[in-house]
Design brief:
- There is one protein chain.
- This protein has about 375 residues and is an alpha/beta fold.
- The protein contains 14 helices and eleven strands.
- It folds into two domains: about 270 residues, Aspartate Aminotransferase, domain 2, CATH 3.40.640; about 100 residues, Aspartate Aminotransferase, domain 1, CATH 3.90.1150.
- Strand 4, helix 8 and strand 5 form a beta-alpha-beta unit.
- It is globular and about 70 Å long.
- Pyridoxal-5'-phosphate binds next to helix 4 and helix 5.
């Protein structure tokens, strides 16, 4: 932060080119490191805007309803911002959300979605389906969907597949390019630790960003660099995911992202994931020893189908337990109506933290 302030003081606007990390290309500092986290090529990602804004910009490109093909498939009870985004995109094109949005819910009496139900719904929707848009990891249950399989099913019926990776990025192993995913977006202030309101990120598969038929809204930062400052008519998108950028990079905001991605790079997703699986399994084992509190873990037990989150669904006393945790210095998350989400994060949580968490629960009479 000090470095950017010094360069601003010293160079003023010339910092766009003279700063030690020139602001003109500041966003490019992240391509290599982000691409490793999400399993993409460096050109397929860019740090820009914020999550819901990116979701809209990407749907402008990948939700182009026409004729019979106008439906979007998503999970029921998705994060509200995603629901609002999809609802208003559908309305913008003149459709009724009740007709155009297909929602997949868990089966009666179950908490997580059967993947088979998603695949079946895609097949049933067939050529009426324009887009599959799911959260990569469901924010409420922590369920990590098989994105490769779902994408393949979407492509089979001629639909695109894009994902909101808010709870997946930096948490679970991703191979967006190899899984042939069309687009994805994420925020950096959850597992990526880049601070409140931190810059978001997008991924677009290379066979789309180079396709001139893929429409994108234009802004000068998405325009080809060679003509960006010529101030001429005619939007010429860059030949990379950066073409979805609108505005110049929010450098002060991105400073924390830069520092955080360094730590991620040093640790590596492979090592983080290894520890994550062990740490989460350990916490799960501890929680299963508890018999005096009325809760069940609704997150999948299969390590491949979850990240480091465990969602504890309470019959009663949920709020009271949550308040005790908070009073004891634990930052967990309360979700209405009755879920406590806890995330033993491999980057900074220890086995001892998990044990202490268990002890606090055991101290509740
Ligand atoms: C956190 C989160 C958001 C937040 O969106 P912003 O635009 O960054 O405020 C949206 N969707 C999901 C699934 C989230 O988990």
């Amino acid at each position: 932060m000090e470095q950017e302030l010094e360069d601003w003081a010293k160079y003023g606007v010339e910092g766009h080119f003279q700063a030690r990390n020139p602001w003109f290309s500041y966003h490019k500092l992240f391509n290599e490191r982000l691409s490793k986290i999400v399993g993409a090529k460096p050109d397929e990602v860019v740090a820009t805007n914020t999550l819901t804004v990116n979701l809209h910009l990407l749907m402008i490109s990948f939700y182009r309803p026409q004729g019979k093909r106008y439906k979007i498939l998503m999970e029921a009870s998705a994060f509200p911002s995603d629901q609002y985004a999809v609802e208003t995109q559908v309305r913008m094109h003149g459709y009724d959300p009740a007709d155009a949005i297909i929602e997949i819910a868990p089966r009666q009496g179950e908490h997580i979605i059967e993947e088979q139900d998603i695949l079946q719904a895609i097949e049933d929707a067939g050529e009426s389906l324009a887009l599959v848009m799911l959260g990569g990891v469901n924010y409420y249950t922590g369920q990590f969907f098989d994105l490769a399989k779902i994408t393949q099913a979407a492509h089979r019926v001629g639909a695109y597949a894009g994902y909101d990776l808010a709870h997946a990025v930096g948490n679970v192993p991703l191979q967006l390019h190899d899984w042939n995913i069309d687009f994805a977006c994420w925020c950096s202030y959850k597992y990526l630790n880049s601070g409140p309101g931190g810059v978001g990120g997008i991924y677009v598969h290379e066979h789309h960003y180079s396709n001139p038929k893929i429409f994108r809204l234009g802004g000068w930062w998405g325009n080809s660099e060679s003509t960006r400052f010529k101030m001429e008519k005619g939007f010429i998108p860059q030949n990379n995911a950066g073409s979805w950028q609108m505005s110049n990079a929010p450098v002060f905001n991105m400073v924390a992202h830069n520092a955080s991605l360094d730590i991620y790079d040093k640790a590596g997703m492979k090592a983080l994931r290894e520890k994550s699986e062990r740490l989460t399994a350990y916490l799960e084992w501890l929680l299963r020893q508890i018999t005096h509190l009325p809760f069940e873990i609704i997150t999948p037990t299969d390590a491949h189908r979850r990240g480091c989150q465990l969602s504890m669904l309470f019959g009663e006393r949920g709020k009271e337990v949550f308040e005790t945790l908070t009073a004891n210095g634990v930052i967990a998350d309360w979700r209405e109506p009755n879920v406590i989400r806890v995330a033993p994060v491999p980057l900074y949580n220890t086995y001892e933290d998990c044990y202490k968490f268990y002890e606090i629960l055991m101290s509740i009479k």
